[in-house]
Design brief:
This protein is an alpha+beta fold. The protein has three helices and ten strands. Helix 1 runs parallel beside helix 3. The longest helix is centred in the first third of the chain and has 17 residues.
Length: about 210
Amino acid sequence: MRSAKRIIAIILSLIMLASVSAFASAAIVSPAKSSIVYSDSLLVSVKVSDAENIRVTVYEKKDSRQIEIVNDKGIAEKRTQYFSVDVKDFTEDDIALIAAGRLLDDNNEPILLSTGAAVKRYTDFTVGEAETFKNETGISFYTKQLSDVKPGLYRVKVELLDGDGLVKSVSSHIVAVKEKELAPQEDVLSGQQNAVTVIQNLLKSIFK
């Protein structure tokens, strides 16, 4: 099945990357880049291969619109209202386009998603508190399971910190969280969460 083949390919890729000395000292394992998760939870896992400090922040990207309200003085005024992004029809290619951050193509035309809508920028809202993780050994994993995650578009940001807490580098992955009921029938491993757990456990056993 396609899902099983994809998992095997990811495992083999990670094993090969782990043997390269130039491999990044902090890499996001889960969620996968520009991926879709059919669940009400989100597994965040970062592999730290050197004695490094990282800071992990999860954001929900929200859409916005202008609404008109009447204040206490009876005066109409406009305010910005934020709401979760409707990701129901998003594909992985759509998420990759959003992650790229470009609104116009080389011909100065709007870049379109598979839905026909133009790519747009969203506003980040933090989900919980940013967490700092210190790795004092060889290879270690920062892992956190977020529960009660609503459908929407999320960004996981990992900052590599120096000894003074200053940011040396930043990486991020964007993921769409969809309702379980929308999962394709061939997704036999109950979504990405189980697949990532398999990969993580394999990596732990390799580098013990």
